[in-house]
Amino acid sequence: MVAIGAAIAAFTGVNSLLIMIGLKLQNPKRAFLPLYGSLADNALEIATLCLGGAAALLLVAHPAAAVLVLLPVIVLHRCVLMRQLTELATHDGKTGLLNDTEWRTRATTEIARAQRQSQRFAVLLIDLDHFKKVNDAHGHLAGDAVLHAVAAAISTETRAYDTIGRFGGEEFVVLLPGMHTEAAHAAAERIRAAVAELIVTTSIDGCTHVITGVTASIGIATYPDTAVAIDHILHAADTAMYRAKTQGRNQVVAYSVAAPN
Q1: Do 41 and 105 fall within a single domain?
Q2: What is the rounded CA–CA span in Å between residue 83 and residue 78?
């Protein structure tokens, strides 16, 4: 039992440390210890290792009884498979963010909650400026690396309970519960600055590409000030984002009914 416990602890410690180091290298701004994850994040791994230890004990003491471990192992793997399929169905493959359909579903749920509790929220529509130039100069694989880096930057500058999605192409959308226009503007400015500071290094066919100078135009719309339906809120945020484009790009603009369309 001591040997099995030590083996489980050693495996978990080394594996978690390597993952944490990798995540830290990918995004140095993130705090190190939270990268370990919660108990829920690691529960499946620990449970699987414990079953392995139980199987080892049974093989030594009662080999026939080791068959009883098979069912829990199968169930665990089916649960993992279902979770992976759910991830594939609801998340964007290039960025790991929610896809458009899932984001809209969660945004609709947030509207219902906000209506019940008389709360507010803000929506940010983020569009990368001149992204086609990145693809033309470095190739689409490098463009995908930029999209992934931008997604990570947005995630770093938002809260754990904010809802982030890839809206399509080089557009991203963020729902910020409980935020009024001023707070949303501050959050959008943090995102805009983080994107502008990105240095994306990627290697394709042995050739290293270093991409800098990526900027984003961001439009803001709020509930219930702007509209009460998700499509109308998105339209307002889109309108504000295009105003940011026409005003010079790399800036944040909040939707205003009085402003010209």
Answers
A1: no
A2: 9
Q: Token match 């998340």: residue?
A: 91
Q: Are residues 50 and 157 in the same domain?
A: no
Two tokens at 120?
């507010």
Closest listed residue to residue 156, CA positions, set 128, 180, 190, 107: 190
Q: What is the pTM of this model?
A: 0.70
In the three-class reduction of DSSP (H, G, I as helix; E, B as strand; rest coil), residue 152 is classed as helix
Assess if residue 72 is contained within a domain: yes
Residue 41 in this model has a pLDDT that exceeds 90: no
Domain that holds residue 136: 100-254
Cis ω for the linkage preceding 224 (within 30 of 0): yes
Spatial CB neighbours of 231, under 8 Å, sequence gap ≥ 6: none
CB atoms within 10 A of CB 44: 14
pLDDT at 260 over 80: no
Domain membership of residue 80 (yes or no) is yes
Same domain, yes or no: 68 and 148: no
Q: Which residue has the tokens 């501050």?
A: 186
DSSP state of 123: E
Active site residues: 170
d(CA 230, CA 8): 48
